[in-house]
Protein backbone atom coordinates (compact mmCIF):
# COMPACT_ATOMS: atom_id res chain seq x y z
CA UNK A 1 0.00 0.00 0.00
CA UNK A 2 1.32 3.43 -0.94
CA UNK A 3 1.25 6.36 1.50
CA UNK A 4 -1.06 8.18 -0.90
CA UNK A 5 -3.67 5.40 -0.87
CA UNK A 6 -5.71 7.01 1.90
CA UNK A 7 -7.39 10.18 0.67
CA UNK A 8 -4.56 11.97 -1.11
CA UNK A 9 -4.53 15.60 0.10
CA UNK A 10 -4.54 18.42 -2.39
CA UNK A 11 -0.97 19.76 -2.68
CA UNK A 12 -0.36 23.33 -1.53
CA UNK A 13 0.68 24.19 -5.10
CA UNK A 14 -2.60 22.85 -6.46
CA UNK A 15 -4.53 24.83 -3.85
CA UNK A 16 -2.70 27.96 -5.01
CA UNK A 17 -2.84 27.48 -8.77
CA UNK A 18 -5.78 25.19 -9.45
CA UNK A 19 -9.13 26.32 -8.08
CA UNK A 20 -12.05 24.18 -9.29
CA UNK A 21 -15.80 24.74 -9.51
CA UNK A 22 -16.50 21.16 -8.44
CA UNK A 23 -15.00 18.62 -6.07
CA UNK A 24 -12.86 16.18 -8.09
CA UNK A 25 -10.19 13.59 -7.27
CA UNK A 26 -7.21 15.57 -5.86
CA UNK A 27 -4.80 13.34 -7.83
CA UNK A 28 -6.00 15.03 -11.03
CA UNK A 29 -5.08 18.46 -9.67
CA UNK A 30 -1.83 17.34 -8.03
CA UNK A 31 -0.48 16.01 -11.34
CA UNK A 32 1.45 18.52 -13.38
CA UNK A 33 4.46 18.62 -15.69
CA UNK A 34 7.64 19.81 -13.94
CA UNK A 35 10.88 20.17 -15.91
CA UNK A 36 13.36 19.95 -13.01
CA UNK A 37 14.36 16.31 -12.52
CA UNK A 38 16.13 15.00 -9.43
CA UNK A 39 19.23 12.85 -9.81
CA UNK A 40 17.31 9.76 -8.69
CA UNK A 41 16.85 6.50 -10.55
CA UNK A 42 13.44 4.95 -11.19
CA UNK A 43 13.12 1.38 -9.91
CA UNK A 44 11.95 -1.04 -12.56
CA UNK A 45 8.90 -1.98 -10.46
CA UNK A 46 7.76 1.68 -10.37
CA UNK A 47 8.32 2.08 -14.08
CA UNK A 48 6.38 -1.09 -14.79
CA UNK A 49 3.62 0.00 -12.39
CA UNK A 50 2.97 3.21 -14.33
CA UNK A 51 2.99 1.23 -17.58
CA UNK A 52 0.52 -1.16 -15.98
CA UNK A 53 -1.78 1.82 -15.33
CA UNK A 54 -1.53 2.74 -19.02
CA UNK A 55 -2.35 -0.86 -19.91
CA UNK A 56 -5.79 -0.56 -18.32
CA UNK A 57 -6.93 2.44 -20.33
CA UNK A 58 -10.06 1.97 -22.44
CA UNK A 59 -9.72 1.78 -26.23
CA UNK A 60 -11.89 1.42 -29.29
CA UNK A 61 -12.79 -2.30 -29.71
CA UNK A 62 -10.24 -2.91 -26.94
CA UNK A 63 -7.51 -2.75 -29.62
CA UNK A 64 -5.01 -1.24 -27.15
CA UNK A 65 -3.01 0.50 -29.91
CA UNK A 66 -0.46 2.04 -27.50
CA UNK A 67 3.14 0.83 -27.20
CA UNK A 68 5.82 2.37 -24.99
CA UNK A 69 9.45 2.32 -26.13
CA UNK A 70 11.54 2.57 -22.96
CA UNK A 71 14.94 4.29 -22.74
CA UNK A 72 16.51 3.76 -19.32
CA UNK A 73 20.16 2.99 -20.12
CA UNK A 74 22.57 5.79 -21.06
CA UNK A 75 22.92 4.32 -24.54
CA UNK A 76 19.17 4.15 -25.10
CA UNK A 77 18.65 7.69 -23.78
CA UNK A 78 21.43 9.06 -26.02
CA UNK A 79 19.53 7.65 -29.00
CA UNK A 80 16.34 9.42 -27.83
CA UNK A 81 18.28 12.67 -27.28
CA UNK A 82 19.20 12.68 -30.98
CA UNK A 83 15.57 13.31 -32.03
CA UNK A 84 14.33 15.54 -29.18
CA UNK A 85 14.16 19.31 -29.85
CA UNK A 86 16.85 21.42 -28.18
CA UNK A 87 14.27 23.37 -26.16
CA UNK A 88 13.16 20.13 -24.50
CA UNK A 89 16.55 18.43 -24.39
CA UNK A 90 17.93 21.16 -22.16
CA UNK A 91 15.79 19.92 -19.26
CA UNK A 92 14.75 16.37 -20.19
CA UNK A 93 18.37 15.18 -20.52
CA UNK A 94 18.31 14.94 -16.71
CA UNK A 95 15.30 12.56 -16.67
CA UNK A 96 16.32 9.03 -15.62
CA UNK A 97 13.82 7.44 -18.02
CA UNK A 98 12.38 8.51 -21.37
CA UNK A 99 9.46 6.83 -23.07
CA UNK A 100 8.27 7.15 -26.63
CA UNK A 101 4.52 6.61 -26.93
CA UNK A 102 3.73 5.04 -30.27
CA UNK A 103 0.36 3.91 -31.49
CA UNK A 104 -0.73 1.31 -34.00
CA UNK A 105 -2.68 3.17 -36.67
CA UNK A 106 -4.27 0.09 -38.22
CA UNK A 107 -6.96 -2.30 -36.98
CA UNK A 108 -6.93 -6.10 -37.14
CA UNK A 109 -8.42 -6.03 -40.66
CA UNK A 110 -5.63 -3.80 -41.97
CA UNK A 111 -7.87 -0.70 -42.18
CA UNK A 112 -7.23 2.57 -40.35
CA UNK A 113 -8.02 2.71 -36.62
CA UNK A 114 -9.43 6.23 -36.37
CA UNK A 115 -9.23 6.12 -32.55
CA UNK A 116 -5.59 5.15 -32.14
CA UNK A 117 -4.34 8.56 -30.99
CA UNK A 118 -7.38 9.16 -28.78
CA UNK A 119 -6.81 5.81 -27.07
CA UNK A 120 -3.04 6.26 -26.68
CA UNK A 121 -3.78 9.67 -25.18
CA UNK A 122 -6.00 8.04 -22.57
CA UNK A 123 -3.22 5.56 -21.78
CA UNK A 124 -0.69 8.38 -21.31
CA UNK A 125 -3.17 10.10 -18.98
CA UNK A 126 -3.49 6.99 -16.84
CA UNK A 127 0.29 6.63 -16.75
CA UNK A 128 0.73 10.23 -15.62
CA UNK A 129 -1.83 9.88 -12.83
CA UNK A 130 -0.28 6.68 -11.51
CA UNK A 131 3.17 8.34 -11.63
CA UNK A 132 1.81 11.21 -9.53
CA UNK A 133 0.23 8.78 -7.06
CA UNK A 134 3.67 7.19 -6.61
CA UNK A 135 5.39 10.53 -6.02
CA UNK A 136 6.93 10.46 -9.49
CA UNK A 137 6.65 12.94 -12.36
CA UNK A 138 5.85 12.34 -16.03
CA UNK A 139 6.19 15.16 -18.59
CA UNK A 140 4.93 14.62 -22.14
CA UNK A 141 6.64 16.27 -25.12
CA UNK A 142 5.51 16.78 -28.68
CA UNK A 143 8.73 18.63 -29.43
CA UNK A 144 10.70 15.90 -31.15
CA UNK A 145 11.36 14.80 -34.72
CA UNK A 146 8.93 11.93 -35.32
CA UNK A 147 10.49 10.90 -38.65
CA UNK A 148 13.91 10.69 -37.06
CA UNK A 149 12.51 8.70 -34.11
CA UNK A 150 10.82 6.32 -36.55
CA UNK A 151 14.16 5.70 -38.26
CA UNK A 152 16.37 5.70 -35.14
CA UNK A 153 14.19 3.18 -33.23
CA UNK A 154 13.18 1.05 -36.24
CA UNK A 155 9.50 1.77 -35.66
CA UNK A 156 7.34 -0.10 -38.21
CA UNK A 157 5.31 2.06 -40.61
CA UNK A 158 1.95 1.19 -39.11
CA UNK A 159 2.94 2.80 -35.78
CA UNK A 160 2.80 6.57 -35.29
CA UNK A 161 5.25 8.23 -32.90
CA UNK A 162 3.01 10.46 -30.75
CA UNK A 163 4.95 11.83 -27.77
CA UNK A 164 8.10 11.45 -25.70
CA UNK A 165 7.51 11.24 -21.95
CA UNK A 166 10.21 12.12 -19.42
CA UNK A 167 9.77 10.11 -16.21
CA UNK A 168 11.50 10.53 -12.86
CA UNK A 169 11.30 12.49 -9.63
CA UNK A 170 10.88 16.21 -9.13
CA UNK A 171 14.11 18.14 -8.64
CA UNK A 172 15.11 21.59 -7.47
CA UNK A 173 13.70 24.34 -9.76
CA UNK A 174 17.01 26.19 -9.21
CA UNK A 175 18.55 23.83 -11.78
CA UNK A 176 16.42 25.49 -14.49
CA UNK A 177 17.32 28.73 -16.25
CA UNK A 178 15.25 31.90 -16.73
CA UNK A 179 11.72 31.41 -18.07
CA UNK A 180 11.72 27.68 -17.42
CA UNK A 181 12.36 28.33 -13.76
CA UNK A 182 9.61 30.96 -13.59
CA UNK A 183 7.12 28.54 -15.19
CA UNK A 184 7.97 25.70 -12.79
CA UNK A 185 4.58 25.46 -11.07
CA UNK A 186 1.20 23.92 -11.90
CA UNK A 187 -0.62 25.74 -14.71
CA UNK A 188 -4.25 26.81 -14.74
CA UNK A 189 -7.02 25.99 -17.20
CA UNK A 190 -9.69 27.70 -19.27
CA UNK A 191 -12.98 28.24 -17.45
CA UNK A 192 -15.30 25.22 -17.51
CA UNK A 193 -17.91 27.19 -19.45
CA UNK A 194 -15.44 27.74 -22.30
CA UNK A 195 -15.07 23.99 -22.95
CA UNK A 196 -18.73 22.98 -22.72
CA UNK A 197 -20.65 23.39 -25.98
CA UNK A 198 -24.37 23.07 -25.32
CA UNK A 199 -25.98 21.01 -28.10
CA UNK A 200 -23.95 22.25 -31.09
CA UNK A 201 -21.52 24.98 -32.21
CA UNK A 202 -24.28 26.54 -34.33
C1 LIG B 1 0.96 15.79 -26.27
C2 LIG B 1 1.70 16.79 -25.41
C3 LIG B 1 2.81 17.44 -25.93
C4 LIG B 1 3.56 18.31 -25.11
N1 LIG B 1 4.71 18.86 -25.60
C5 LIG B 1 5.52 19.53 -24.76
C6 LIG B 1 6.81 19.93 -25.20
O1 LIG B 1 7.25 19.67 -26.33
N2 LIG B 1 7.60 20.59 -24.30
C7 LIG B 1 7.17 20.88 -23.04
O2 LIG B 1 7.96 21.45 -22.27
N3 LIG B 1 5.96 20.49 -22.59
C8 LIG B 1 5.12 19.82 -23.41
N4 LIG B 1 3.90 19.38 -22.98
C9 LIG B 1 3.43 19.72 -21.62
C10 LIG B 1 2.30 20.72 -21.68
O3 LIG B 1 2.80 22.00 -21.98
C11 LIG B 1 1.54 20.70 -20.34
O4 LIG B 1 0.95 19.44 -20.16
C12 LIG B 1 0.44 21.76 -20.30
O5 LIG B 1 1.00 23.05 -20.33
C13 LIG B 1 -0.41 21.63 -19.05
O6 LIG B 1 0.40 21.70 -17.91
P1 LIG B 1 0.48 20.55 -16.81
O7 LIG B 1 0.79 19.26 -17.52
O8 LIG B 1 1.58 20.98 -15.90
O9 LIG B 1 -0.86 20.47 -16.13
C14 LIG B 1 3.13 18.55 -23.77
C15 LIG B 1 2.00 17.89 -23.28
C16 LIG B 1 1.29 17.03 -24.07
C17 LIG B 1 0.10 16.30 -23.49
TrEMBL record:
This is Nitroreductase family protein. Belongs to the nitroreductase family. It comes from the Bacteria. The lineage of its organism: Bacteria, Bacillati, Bacillota, Bacilli, Bacillales. The keyword Oxidoreductase applies. The keyword Acetylation does not apply. Signal peptide: none annotated. Residues 28-85, 89-169 form the Nitroreductase domain. Keywords: Oxidoreductase. Coiled coil: none annotated. GO terms for molecular function: oxidoreductase activity. CDD domains: TdsD-like (cd02138). Pfam families: Nitroreductase.
